[in-house]
Automatic annotation (TrEMBL):
This is Esterase. InterPro entries: AB_hydrolase_fold, Esterase-like, Ig-like_fold, Ig_E-set, Mycobacterial_A85_antigen. The keyword Signal applies. It comes from Dyadobacter luticola. Keywords: Signal. PANTHER family: DIACYLGLYCEROL ACYLTRANSFERASE_MYCOLYLTRANSFERASE AG85A, ENTEROCHELIN ESTERASE-RELATED. The lineage of its organism: Bacteria, Pseudomonadati, Bacteroidota, Cytophagia, Cytophagales. Residues 1-21 form the signal peptide. One of its GO terms (molecular function) is acyltransferase activity, transferring groups other than amino-acyl groups.
Amino acid sequence: MNKHCFTLLLAASLTLGAAWAQVEKPAIKDDFKPCELNQPGQEYPQVNSQGYVRFRIKAPQADSVRVSLGLGGRGGTRLTKDAEGFFTGTTEGPMDEGFHYYHLNVDGGTFNDPGTLNYYGSVRWESGIEIPAHDQDFYQLKNVPHGHVQQVLFPSKSTNTSRRAFVYTPPGYEKGNKRYPVLYLQHGWGEDETAWSNQGHANLIMDNLIADGKIEPFIIVMTYGMTNEVKFGKIKEFKIEPFQTVLVDELIPYVDATFRTLASRDKRAMAGLSMGGMETRNITVNKPDVFGYYALLSGGVYSPEDLKDKTKPKLVFLSAGSKEKPDGVRNAAAALKTAGYNSVSYISEGTAHEFLTWRRSLYQMAPLLFK
């Protein structure tokens, strides 16, 4: 190769490299706005149109502040202190659309961001942030008839206490005498019975689907799934039998006696996200005569062998984010279909193990229930 050709190739390589650098790291747009989950009057955290997040924390006596919300290397996003004692910083890249938990690390201690609302996750009340999604319309608060989410306390002899559940009843429930199917919807590890309403917007998803005429209304029951506490990383030690007793022998009879339900297998569904999916899988396999519809949202899969020689489910719904293990979900649904089961898979594009995956999954699943 002559010197002239080498020079041209080098120039081309540098130009291409520069172009790739521009593609990988576009300029951050200065159109930051307060996050929609901020507490009243709080300006930070802020989110821009690209999904970058900017934080500002006042901690004049602190030496170091990091934000656990990803994209910032090990330990999260490091904030820089100014002369007035404010720590400010922006994530190195855009976040996935949807809801995320996060917290602050201040001089080695864990604290919540005073600027935003808190949500129960990771076995503690965490700060929450929302990155606007391009398809967020389906879970937005709209001017449509709304159902109600009410707290109930039900007796549990097996745990010798009263346990809590939240029950969504559809618009118009209080004014009529109609009976409704029921979906028992479980949260993930480290969360509780508030998660599907607060982080998941399950009630708004239902209200909007009903208003659009896309589903027949049904009741949703959400309860705490951790009857025996298990530390992170030791999920295999979780025993399903105590919670199965609470759900099947205590909560379901209470709901059927208290609300106007259609108390039959074909009008009862169970679904769960993550660990709630594991609970759903175990209970539906153990109690196939209790539930007619099964759904695992980033919560594992069924095989034909799991369901063989049992009362056949009317639907098996499997979902995950495209950043999880989507092929496993697709393949499992295909195997079930080949074996003669009504199975459906759904993959949430561009999301991982996070609430936008599960909001979308509920939106896709709800119209398939109770047909």
